[in-house]
Amino acid sequence: MTLSEELQWRGFVQQTTLRDIKELDTMGQITFYKGFDASADSQTIGNLAAMMADLVFIRHGHKAYILAGGSTSLVGDPGGKGGERTLQAEDTIARNVECAQAQIKKIYGDRDYTMVNNLDWTKEVTVIDFLRNIGKNVSVGDLIKKDFIASRLGEGTDGISFAEFSYTLLQGFDYLHLFDNHGVRLQLGGSDQWGNCLSGVELIRRMRGEEVDVLTLPLVINKATGRKFGKSEEGAVWLDESKTSVYRFYQFWINIDDEGVEGYMKVYTELDKETIDDVMEAHNEARSNRLAQKHLAYEVTKVVHGEDRAKSVQNLSEVLFGGGEYASLTAQDFMELRTELKVITRAEGDDLVQTLVDAGLASSKGEARRFLSGNAVYINGDQISLEKSTLDADDFIYGYCVLRRGKNSTALVELS
């Protein structure tokens, strides 16, 4: 499969300045760049989609420059926003850049790419130099025609500051700098960045007399909510496990609906077409088994958090929801559970009725007794016998046991 074929098959083509996307296959080694925003201390799965597009180019032998928006994030991108962004402190942006670079390094692994930060070439530029060298080559008339600026102007809007109005010049300056110093001739970006990306194309044409190109990627939409996978969206799924735990990250993908699962596999994994076709064929034969979702969840979690963590939460999910053996859980699995379930500490011989109440699985001792007599309580997946009244040493695995009432009310008991 050629580069253009893979990009189209995976759904990574929205708009482009190329006359034909197939031109990518005959351009030799392409030097491209893709920027990332540093407005938060973690990237999201929306950003991850763009990273996976980068990896397609890199796999096909092309040279990548990954640009941190160290300076542009200090101004704020007006695209997609109805009002001004809140400015963040310089040290906050610097910290966000460091966090994003660490995540990118983990995801890209030992692949060949170069990390750059636009703060390095903008921080010493004077206002006069910027206006003379960049501003003089940009038409205000062209700027106000850009959708993301036009939407902020006119009656019924809050307007736009000069800072955000000028943001697109900074992005154009980035492309010019990378063209001059590194031979970059293609920019990748989200479809909401089309106008900003064209600023660089226009600037290089006017100042250097050269033609360069842009390829934008469709924004990945959560089909369940209709919203994009972004930082500012409610329920954002983060790549930082302190913001979205590895377990919850895995469960997000497990719970993807059938309508979206094949498309997400193409975007968020490096599985080839033959493998995905085989998975979907098996999935469609017995959809209740959610085979495609399981493949998706494992592969994406492996990309972001590594193979060991992916195997751990995969096993944990199979045990908790798929009838797997609790005896197969490892100490690491129980550490994952500690971040997700209510944890209470108990000693060998402690009363089971009181434990149910303290774990929040029953509102009173009377209700706890009714649950026990109704065979509604489980320890490590096994239904508790009517005769059992206390916690015993053999109830615990690595010092823990999973106490469940009914189908979904669960707590983790730690042996003191």
SS-derived structural category:
alpha/beta
The shape is elongated
Q: Name the poorly predicted regions.
A: none
CATH class of the largest domain: Alpha Beta
The major sheet is characterized as:
6 strands, mixed
Question: What count of domains describes the coordinates?
Answer: 3
Number of E-state strands: 13
Task: Supply Rg.
Answer: 26 Å
* CA-CA gap between termini: 57 Å
Give the name of the CATH architecture of the largest domain. Answer: 3-Layer(aba) Sandwich
Lateral strand order in the biggest sheet: 1-6-5-2-3-4
Roughly how much helix do the residues carry, as a percent range? Answer: 40-55%
Q: What's the arrangement of secondary structure elements?
A:
Layout (H helix, E strand, L loop, with lengths): L2 H8 L4 E2 L14 E6 L8 H15 L3 E6 L3 H4 L14 H19 L4 E5 L1 H4 L4 H7 L6 H6 L1 H4 L11 H4 L1 H16 L3 E5 L3 H15 L4 E5 L3 E2 L4 E2 L17 H9 L3 H11 L4 H13 L5 H15 L1 H15 L9 H8 L3 E5 L5 H7 L6 H9 L3 E3 L2 E2 L16 E6 L3 E7 L1
Parallel strand pairs: 2-3, 2-5, 3-4, 5-6, 9-13
Antiparallel strand pairs: 1-6, 7-8, 10-11, 10-12, 12-13
What do these coordinates show?
By secondary structure, the protein is an alpha/beta fold. The chain has three domains: 3-221, HUPs (Rossmann fold), CATH 3.40.50; 246-338, Tyrosyl-Transfer RNA Synthetase (Orthogonal Bundle); 342-415, Structural Genomics Hypothetical 15.5 Kd Protein In mrcA-pckA Intergenic Region, Chain A, CATH 3.10.290.10. 45% of the residues lie in helices and 13% in strands. It contains 19 helices and 13 strands. The protein has helices spanning 3-10, 45-59, 72-75, 90-108, 119-122, 127-133, 140-145, 147-150, 162-165, 167-182, 194-208, 246-254, 258-268, 273-285, 291-305, 307-321, 331-338, 352-358, 365-373, and strands at 15-16, 31-36, 63-68, 113-117, 186-190, 213-217, 221-222, 227-228, 342-346, 377-379, 382-383, 400-405, 409-415. The strands form three sheets. It has a six-stranded mixed sheet with strand order 1-6-5-2-3-4, sandwiched between helices. Helix 2 links the parallel strand 2 (31-36) and strand 3. Helix 12 runs antiparallel to helix 15 (291-305) and helix 15 runs antiparallel to helix 16 (307-321). The longest helix has 19 residues, at 90-108. The protein is elongated. The model has no long low-confidence stretch (mean pLDDT 92).
